Amino acid sequence: MQREAGREDPLSDMVEMLQLYGTPEKSPDSVAE
Fold first, then answer.
1. d(CA 31, CA 25)
2. Of 2, 12, 24, 26, which has the fewest beta carbons less than 10 angstroms from its beta carbon?
3. How far apart are CA 17 and CA 11, in angstroms?
4. C-alpha–C-alpha distance, residues 30 and 22, integer Å
């Protein structure tokens, strides 16, 4: 994963994760429940 200068805050990193891997609503675990 690329880490850009000035974007090392946890919130931005989490948002980037969600954009890359999808939101929790779309995860198989949520669908199973």
1. 8
2. 2
3. 10
4. 12
pLDDT digits (tens, 9 = 90+) for 3-32: 665 556 778 888 888 887 766 665 556 555
Cβ atoms of 24 and 30 within 8 Å: the answer is yes
Higher pLDDT, 1 or 17: 17
Task: Please provide the DSSP assignment of 1-33 as one string.
Answer: ----TT--SHHHHHHHHHHHH--GGGSHHHHH-
Q: What are phi and psi of 3, to 5 degrees?
A: -110, 110
Q: Please state the pTM of the whole predicted model.
A: 0.34
